[in-house]
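Field reference: sequence -> structure
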Amino acid sequence: MESKTAPPATAGTTRSTIMGMILAMALIESLSGVTQGYLNPILPALGPVFEIDDPTINGIFLISNVSFAVLTPIISRLGDSYGYRMVLRWSIGVVAVGVLQMALWPSLWTVTLGVVMLTCVVGFIPLMMGILRVSSPAHTRTGVSVLIGMLMIMVGAGGLLAGIVGVTDPTLGFWVAVPFAVAAVACSFVMPDAGIPTREGIALAPLLACSLGLIGFVVALSMAPEWGWLDGRTLVAGVVGLALLAYWAKRDSSATEGRRFMDLRMLANPRIRIVSLATFFFGFASISYFGTNGIFLHANPDKTGYGFALSPVMIAIVLALASVLSLVSSLLTAKAMRKFGERATLVFAGVLLAAGFLVMVAAHDSLAGYFAGFAMFNLSLGMYQAGTRALSVEGVPLEETSTAAGLNELALSVGIAVGAAVVKLVSSASVESGHISEAGVFLIWGTLATAALVAAAAGARYPKRQTTEARA
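Structure field:
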């Protein structure tokens, strides 16, 4: 791909300036982590408060999943076209308003709207990667590792804090994110105005096709276990969604078209293509498991034959402690790729994730044994998230950094949606006396372990030749 514009790196940038910028970015990303973590304990507890049933609560989660998928490519593309700093500030502002309205005026409608506004956090990392890659390419990998580490630790901390603060009134948990929103807004004003926006217009037809296609596809996957896989609503949403996505892919991958939504020709680059594939299966195999993990830890072994009967607060503590492992592994990922190579790091992350599930299978009767498997799971989680995100922008023109990062985020979101649908399918087919059977849990572990090995196999195809970008 020929670069249309080549945004120059900021001249005379000192190491201390770069470290300060990465610190500010980490504070911004802490808002993303908190808002993604604190909804998990709050939303299920809102039923009695708002007088809503479980399907309505699940509907809010569905809206959140759809919004994540739709906004990922849009915000990333806007960053390349109109400037990383400007789009980042607007994204932070929208999230901050969403956080404040839910805290100040909690109701079903403000929470639903707020959940949509909070999904703008999906653009934080692609936009900050654009700023970082232009300002100091040598520190891109280190910066991404720090951002992912902050994301991992704050997802766990956000859920724990919201659970503690909202123990008597779940709506009080919404205040947990307010100080982080204020800090993120302040940090957005110390971001450098890095890069030269392409000012390239966005084609409306492929944008709509991508957005509506993602809505149809994600809705079909999310609602199929409830509606039925052969239900007319599932089939219509899925078929129309896939058709629109196919149209978008054809339009945006054509070399003869003028304006595009996203330049999918970058997938011709084997590095981008392989990382996107690995990211899809990593998301499938990991983040889609969190719901089952909570079910397993909370299950009473006297009734289900498995589990440890942990309380919601204890589960939140477990997740918070496990997130520390993800933080450590993400911070070490840049060094691992530099020392052992990108291919070896991706393969190791996939094998470690699969091994974690196998340990859960072998030691599921022991709390210590299960935690050992879950520890391996979280170590892999931090490693692959930092590794794939850093590699997703290497080898593309500087002015397409945010778009390339957004494409990787989209692969992750779709992988999570597909994985969650498969887990839900297995769960629904394995229910005994209102609980997932032990055989069903084993099948979930085996399925996700297989997906992790596919991710490792995809990573094994990553070219050994390193990119020309500096390492740090």
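Note: The radius of gyration is 21 Å.
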